[in-house]
Amino acid sequence: MATADPTPDPIAPSAHPGSGLLVVLSAMPQIQLECVLGRLSVSFPTERLLIATPDALAADSFPALRFVAAPAAIPSWTFTAADFANAYQLAQKNEAGAILMLGPESSSLGSTAFPDLANAVLTTPTDLAVPCYDLPPHTSLINSAILYPLTRALFASDVRFPLAVDLGLSMRMAERLSRAALRIAATNQEEALLWPVNEAAIAGFNVDQFEVGARIQPQPAGTDLNTMLPLVAGSLFSDIDAKAAFWQRFRMSRPASSPTLKPVPLPHPLSTEGAADIVSRVRTFQLAYTNLQEVWRLVLPPNSLLGLKRLSQTDAGAFRMPESLWARIVFDFLLAFRLRTISRGHLLGALIPLYLGWVASHMNITASGIGAEQHIEAVAAAFETDRTYLVSRWRWPDRFNP
Amino acid sequence: MHFVPGTMLQSDPSQSLQPLYAGNISIWRHMSEALQQSLYRVLSLLISILPGILAFLVAVAVLTLIGAALSVLLRRGLAAMKFDDRLARHRGTAEWAPATSPTALIARASFWACVLLGLIIGVSAFDASYATSAALPSSLLPYLTRVVGAAFLLIAGTLIARYLERSVLIGAVNVQLQYARLLSLGVKWLLLVLTGAMALDHLQIGGVVVELAFGILFGGIVLTLALAVGLGSRHLVSRSLESHSERSGTHGVAVPATPASGQGDSVKHF
After folding, report:
1. Which residues pair with A96 in a beta bridge?
2. Are residues A104 and A180 in the same domain?
3. Is the Cα torsion angle B49, B54, B57, B59 positive or negative in sign?
4. Which ipTM score applies to this complex?
5. In this structure, are residues A348 and A230 in contact, taking their beta carbons and an 8 Å threshold?
């Protein structure tokens, strides 16, 4: 296929300054790109659209659309800080009124996703439009175990996917994210991720969440869990540390109450492969319990260690990590991260077997007939309930902690 | 045996005791002279280095006091200027733990810089005193510096050994190696043996014996690890590797997502 530069002509400013929509696309295969562009052309008036993509496109594919070359970025499974900075610069240069950022595999999004996210930031006072995906069970588990509960408990935000790869941004939100991205660049934290929901929460901006249906979640390529979990969790912990002065003042808008977990009939019983998966994860947890106690002892209070001891003696089939124990573990690791009790690399490495234990427990719970979302909501509620513990120990870390 | 007392009884006592008494006096005199000379030498050695020791102690004490005062002043001054907040605003993110805030770091650095300065001044005063004292063994001061160097080596080696032990332990557990503890202990003792050998070599103690012992110990630990991992645990290794390769598939961070997969069959962490 003949391809041409996506910016054959210099882009003139929008005919309606401040009202156009800049769509920033991640690098994606040609077929997906054409699919996304086709749906954008149908969803919006083309004269108000400006597309920024790092991919080359056939010159005559979408003559009605205007393109601008997005700076070449390293292909990533999520948006990097540089992506936010570049998006804001492009929007400012072209006098756009709002930005729609679409991540890899965005062609798998439902038909209403694009207009929902874009119209929210174009026509309503919303500053950050975030999608809520309908994902299959046992998907995006780091989000369910750590990112969502922590964001909800500390920033009083019920955004289900804080690290969503599709976002609608108002210009002031984009400016704020751009400033945060520049700060990250100044401190040479190239791997740090930006957390738009946290930024919006401390700025007091309006955040809206939209049901967008199913989506193929992009996966980090070429790296394993042992690399990615410390990277993502460490980035969120750093962000929470940096925003401590803000989130300690937040008050929960609703009283935290743990939902009762009621079993429902299972559509699919746990397969043999799934059961083997649970056994493997429980073994990892048990191996870690016998070897990593000296590290965990530096981080966790005796009560949590007792809970882990009981868990280590449980069979794989009956393995259930209480939500309150998991919340306490994450909070204690967050505190140790802040206090640098041990090297941060070691700390986050020691969290991995505990997280795998939570995954095994989650799989067991969902296999017993309790819905995955129901369990995740219970976990998030446990984080909210235990929030006072975190705030208290954050302020007085040396206080007696049984 | 009986001849000597007989002779002594027959002769005049004053004549016979005189030579013995004179000989005793001579021995005692020599002994006391030797003791006096030794005492004199030790005392003169102490007297010659005493000003140096006193100068060393005074320099360290005075500079430590100055350092403490400077540290308190800096801490209060920087706190009044809200230095930490300004730096956090300027740098964007607060990457400082409370115990290692910029103000605390600067205050501590100034204190220890003063202590170090005191040590340098003290040692140089001691050195000046020592240079003028010919009685002091010529290798004492250089050997002291070697002792300090060896102490630093030991501290650094121990810290590095502990860090690497923990790194290996966590890494090995996360790839499900059953012999994670053995590996981490092996790494720790390899480094400790290396550090000990380096410290002894630095102190010039043992000579070839240390090198030989180090070679045997180091080689022994490596061989033990190799045997344990390669032979004794070969089933565990193969099982661990199989399990690891399976898990790298199921952990799924590199595998494309399949949204329609059944419950329990597909775990995606992202």
Report:
1. A20
2. yes
3. negative
4. 0.84
5. yes
The tens-digit pLDDT sequence of chain B (270 residues) is 444 444 444 445 445 555 555 566 788 888 888 999 989 888 887 787 788 888 889 999 999 999 999 999 998 998 888 887 777 666 554 445 555 678 888 999 999 999 989 988 888 887 776 665 555 555 566 777 788 889 999 999 999 999 999 999 999 999 888 888 988 998 999 899 899 989 998 888 888 888 888 888 888 888 887 877 776 566 666 766 666 666 555 444 433 333 333 334 477 887
Decide: A140 and A217 in contact? Cβ < 8 Å.
Answer: yes
Q: What is the CATH number of the domain that holds A88?
A: 3.90.550.10
- B225 in Cβ contact with B186 (< 8 Å): yes
Count of beta carbons in the 10 Å neighbourhood of residue A265: 5
* Furthest CA-CA distance within chain B: 130
- Considering the domain architecture, whether residues A170 and A284 belong to the same structural domain is answered as no
Reported as a single tens digit per residue, the pLDDT across B112-150 is 999 989 988 888 887 776 665 555 555 566 777 788 889
CB B103 within 8 A of CB B75: yes
**Residue B153 CA: distances (Å) to CA of B120, B150, B192:** 20, 5, 11
Distance in angstroms (rounded) separating the CA atoms of residues A252 and A385: 10
Are A88 and A194 members of one domain? yes
Single pTM value for the model: 0.77
Tally of domains in chain A: 2
Q: Do A238 and B171 make contact, defined as CB atoms within 8 angstroms?
A: no
Residue A81 distance to chain B (closest CA, Å): 14
Domain containing residue A60? 20-224
Query: What is the rounded end-to-end Cα distance, in angstroms, of chain B?
Result: 106
Q: Does residue A184 share a domain with residue A39?
A: yes
Amino acid in the structure at residue A51: I
Q: Pick the last residue of a domain from A160, A191, A224.
A: A224
Among candidates B94, B247, B266 on the partner chain, residue whose Cβ is nearest the Cβ of A138 = B266
Residues 83-102 of B with CB under 8 A from A: 91-95, 97-100
Q: Which residue from A minimizes the CA distance to B183?
A: A291
